[in-house]
Write a structure and sequence with these properties.
The chain is mostly helical and about 120 residues long. It has helices spanning about 1-10, 10-25, 25-40, 60-65, 85-90, 90-115, and strands at about 50-55, 75-80. It has one domain (about 1-115). It contains six helices and two strands. A two-stranded parallel sheet has the order 1-2. Helix 4 links the parallel strand 1 and strand 2 (about 75-80). The protein is globular. The model has no long low-confidence stretch (mean pLDDT about 80).
């Protein structure tokens, strides 16, 4: 599905996305990441899976580890030969990570909900 989504993007859309990313300075990206982490602080102990491309030209890989500031229990996975969209670069590996993570997180949520009520 993701392969098809990416393939369906026309040249103009791809260029627009690239221009958007290039227009943000590293300081702006860093500030945005901090704001988002703060806004999500109430959920900071929830499971999180961070998948990042080591070759991301727009968001430095150092930001991947910084996600733990907002989510201390996050699992951070770096795809060494991937860029900005690791889920497109390696769909199979992404699936092997996301599917079990989602199942585990869903079960934990259901268990917590049952204990709460």
């Amino acid at each position: 599905m993701l392969d098809r989504w990416y393939d369906d993007l026309d040249r103009e859309t791809r260029c627009m996305i690239l221009e958007t990313y290039r227009s943000a300075s590293e300081a702006e990206v860093d500030a945005t990441a901090r704001r988002q982490a703060s806004a999500l602080a109430r959920n900071r102990h929830r499971p999180a899976l961070i998948i990042w491309g080591a070759e991301d030209a727009y968001l430095p890989v150092a930001l991947a580890e910084r996600q733990r500031e907002g989510f201390p229990a996050a699992r951070v996975v770096i795809f060494d030969e991937s860029g900005h969209w690791p889920f497109i670069d390696d769909l199979q590996r992404t699936s092997r990570l996301v599917v079990p993570f989602t199942r585990t997180a869903f079960r934990a949520d259901r268990k917590a909900a049952k204990q709460k009520y």
